[in-house]
Amino acid sequence: RDPLNLLDLYYNSVGRGASFLLNLPPDRRGRIHENDERSLRGFRALIDATFAEDLAQGANATASNVRGGARRFSPIHVLDGDRDTYWSTDDGVTTPELSLDLGRSVTFNVVSLREHLPLGQRIEDWALDAWRDGAWEEFGKGTAIGSRRLWRGEDVTTDRVRLRITKAPVCPALSEMALFLEPPEARDEARP
Predict the structure, then answer these.
(1) In this structure, how many other beta carbons lie within 10 angstroms of the beta carbon of residue 90?
(2) pLDDT tens digit string along 90-112?
(3) Could you tell me if 127 and 169 are in contact, meaning their C-beta atoms sit under 8 angstroms apart?
(4) Is 187 helix (H, G, I), strand (E, B) or coil?
(5) How far is Cα 15 from Cα 17, in angstroms, rounded to an integer?
(6) At 100, phi and psi to the nearest 5?
(7) Within the chain, where are the H helices?
(8) In the prediction, which pLDDT does 24 show?
(9) Which of 18, 25, 143, 177 has the most beta carbons within 10 angstroms of its beta carbon?
């Protein structure tokens, strides 16, 4: 497997809340084969380059509802890098919105979302919007978030991003919303 293939497997496993198990056996010498090592190092370089900088850091986070109006459940917790803190809503609010005002125009093509799993997986459907020409425009959507959901798509350039929870049986508890830019060598067009 080449580094781009490993990257695709990563997005389809870790990016959907599953484990990334390669089952990489040693060769007859008891070592990892040089070709496998080269692929793994290339894959690691792509992951490191992609997730080196969270472009949402420093953003202003607001939400349509905050549980009891309490600071403890503030939307700013999706940006603090702490998986033990989270944004949540009142019990009856199951389809809220969370917006990030980035304060500047940013280009990204990966969005990372994480739920606060000690409270269980709560979000069933969601959508992502970018602010363009004075209106929100949907650029991505998905089902479930769980331990981690990575949306990966075309480049999006905007100064505001919105997450809409479109289906949840109970109030959401979200611990992360982060934006990243994959380097050009990580895209399918980079394949030889």
Answers:
(1) 14
(2) 999 999 999 999 999 999 999 99
(3) no
(4) coil
(5) 6
(6) -115, 120
(7) 3-13, 34-50
(8) 85
(9) 177
